[in-house]
Design brief:
single chain, five-stranded parallel beta sheet, NreC/VraR/RcsB-like_REC, phosphoprotein
Length: about 220
């Protein structure tokens, strides 16, 4: 199966570089490009795309708002935010908007290719621990203790599912969670799947965001 990729960046040189890397892969094809968010939405309306590589700072419509609009569509493509060290706040907003993860623009080609394949298969490409550090940095933006919004889905979680959710938000892998709770890794995977279904979330990244927003996990990674 060929992964259909769209490049969205206002810098033509960067798009050219990414296109050259992807074109050399037998399982990938760049099927569309856009220089801003408005153009990206127009192109997506007429083009079948699996994964969008999304810049954040663009004219007309930035990457965060473009991501939000894409993810609101039925059966949207997966979005991978491209950012730089000094744009972490955009990555945070992009995750909240529905992106499946983010990567630095100067990521080695091999890591970019792995990330695209992971996103396409339904995984979040950002390690939960990386996401947690990002959220810790922006904890002041999140609700303070006692004032957090509640998510009705949390009430539907079993005690064990809440335990698993907290550990996911603290950056533990399924294997680490299994060891911590003395469960099989398959059982943990089942719990994570039920958590995603009950909360209406798409991946582990969104679990981390929700855990922080609702106060289930505090800055520093402690429940």
């Amino acid at each position: 199966m060929t992964i259909r990729v769209m490049l969205v960046d206002d810098q033509v040189l960067l798009r050219t570089g990414f296109r050259m890397v992807l074109a050399a892969q037998p399982d990938m094809e760049v099927v569309a490009e856009a220089g801003d968010g408005v153009e990206a939405l127009q192109v997506l309306a007429a083009t079948a795309v699996d994964v969008v590589l999304m810049d954040v700072r663009m004219p007309k419509l930035d990457g965060v708002e473009t991501t939000r609009r894409i993810c609101q569509q039925p059966e949207p493509p997966k979005v991978l935010i491209l950012t730089t060290f000094d744009l972490d706040e955009y990555a945070f907003s992009g995750l909240k908007a529905g992106a499946s993860g983010f990567m630095l623009k100067d990521v080695p080609p091999g890591e970019l290719l792995t990330a695209i394949r992971s996103v396409h298969s339904g995984d979040a490409v950002v390690a939960p621990s990386t996401t947690r550090r990002l959220l810790d940095r922006f904890a002041p933006m999140l609700p303070s203790a006692g004032k957090e919004p509640r998510h009705k889905g949390l009430e539907r979680l079993t005690e064990r599912e809440r335990e698993v959710m907290v550990l996911v938000a603290q950056g533990l892998s399924n294997g680490e969670i299994a060891a911590h709770l003395v469960l099989s890794e398959a059982t943990v995977k089942t719990h994570v799947g039920r958590i995603l279904t009950k909360l209406g979330l798409r991946d582990r990244v969104q679990v981390v965001v929700l855990a922080y927003e609702t106060g289930l996990v505090r800055a520093g990674g402690h429940g």
